[in-house]
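Input structure tokens:
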């Protein structure tokens, strides 16, 4: 079956991986984050060709693994995508690293690694930044004035200006500027505050992962240039064989919404025709979040005994079951069969399914979504009425107090 693993602790990097019935966290998922392969035949690991940790402040390997049991977001095609809150603490359930994943996860469920801070990295990077900040202290308070990086660069440039470029005037100007106390005290403190902001931005950008290089080692980066990931080299074949299929990323709600809207607009020939068909509102805001006890919160021991289509009639809940996944698989198979052997189209259909789910469900799935959506709209209506009542009560209470 296929599961999703969140890389970089980023909700937009939920990658699909294939796992067999016997695969566990230890035998499969942990190898995603290996720095060195334990197989002598496999030279590459995923972490040597792409960033997998949240930031340079974190360890390169997760300390533990969880599954997200957030119910999920039901799409118009009857599939599930992950809600933005999927990795919140209240939805995370620890996984047994030695137990088969097939016994702990629903197909398509999300695995969320937990990342610990790397104390050594924090110490080294923090020490370098503090040292850099120390060298930029104003000359008026610095125990070692005149050692800032700018002055050191000027010392390197001055001989070049004098001996190579024969520009004595510029050299003298630079030599004057690097003298201790050249700038006024207000100017020194202004420049120092700018340096403080500079360090703060570096910490912020690296902490958020906006600056998150694969490595700071130039030799390692130079070696990676030999690995063209778009080509099916022997190294890549062995790596993919070991990890299983990888490539598609699960779409976030915003990505799904935009893609679904574009698909519907193209299908109906424009926004006006989509509006006349009564589908503009659906295309603009497709799907909805499921309630507690639904979706990925369905008990796993009911996978082969529960019935998605009977449960929606009996309790109005959308639960997962084997018959539901078989129905989705049949729809995908039919779409692939209709591709008439077009490999490109077939790959595109599979990729879209992994990212966004089904766009053209059959009548059985359509009816399932319609029934659940009617319940959602009724709940939404009740919540709005309750909000109005509470608002009126608060207004009346304020007037009485006045």
């Amino acid at each position: 079956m296929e599961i999703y693993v969140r890389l970089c602790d980023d909700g937009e990097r939920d990658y699909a991986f294939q796992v067999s019935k016997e695969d566990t966290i230890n035998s499969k998922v942990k190898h995603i984050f290996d720095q060195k392969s334990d197989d002598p035949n496999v030279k590459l690991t995923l972490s040597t060709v792409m960033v997998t940790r949240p930031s340079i402040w974190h360890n390169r390997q997760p300390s533990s693994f969880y599954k997200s049991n957030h119910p999920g977001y039901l799409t118009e095609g009857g599939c599930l995508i992950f809600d933005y809150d999927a990795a919140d603490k209240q939805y995370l359930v620890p996984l047994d690293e030695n137990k088969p994943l097939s016994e702990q996860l629903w197909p398509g469920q999300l695995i969320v690694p937990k990342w610990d801070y790397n104390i050594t990295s924090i110490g080294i990077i923090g020490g370098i930044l503090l040292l850099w900040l120390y060298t930029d202290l104003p000359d008026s308070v610095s125990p070692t004035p005149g050692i800032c990086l700018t002055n050191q660069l000027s010392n390197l440039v001055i001989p070049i200006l004098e001996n190579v470029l024969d520009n004595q005037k510029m050299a003298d100007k630079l030599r004057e500027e690097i003298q201790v106390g050249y700038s006024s005290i207000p100017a020194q403190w202004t420049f120092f505050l700018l340096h403080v902001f500079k360090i703060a931005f570096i910490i912020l950008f690296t902490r958020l992962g906006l600056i998150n290089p694969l490595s700071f080692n130039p030799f390692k980066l130079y070696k990676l240039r030999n690995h063209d990931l778009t080509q099916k080299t022997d190294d890549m074949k062995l790596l993919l064989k070991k990890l299983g299929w990888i490539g598609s990323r699960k779409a976030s709600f915003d990505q799904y919404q935009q893609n679904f809207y574009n698909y519907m607009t193209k299908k109906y020939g424009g926004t006006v025709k989509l509006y006349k068909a009564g589908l503009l509102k659906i295309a603009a805001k497709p799907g909805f979040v499921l309630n507690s006890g639904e979706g990925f919160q369905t008990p796993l021991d009911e996978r082969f005994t529960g019935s998605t289509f009977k449960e929606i009639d009996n309790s109005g809940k959308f639960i997962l079951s084997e018959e539901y996944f078989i129905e989705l698989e049949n729809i995908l198979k039919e779409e692939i069969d209709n591709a008439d052997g077009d490999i490109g189209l077939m790959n595109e259909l599979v990729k879209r399914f992994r990212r966004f789910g089904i766009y053209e469900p059959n009548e059985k799935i359509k009816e399932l979504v319609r029934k659940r959506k009617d319940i959602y709209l009724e709940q939404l209506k009740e919540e709005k009425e309750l909000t109005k009542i509470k608002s009126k009560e608060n207004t009346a209470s304020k007037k009485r107090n006045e």
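The chain has a mean pLDDT of 87. The beta strands are 2-6, 14-18, 64-68, 73-74, 80-81, 92-94, 110-114, 246-249, 288-289.
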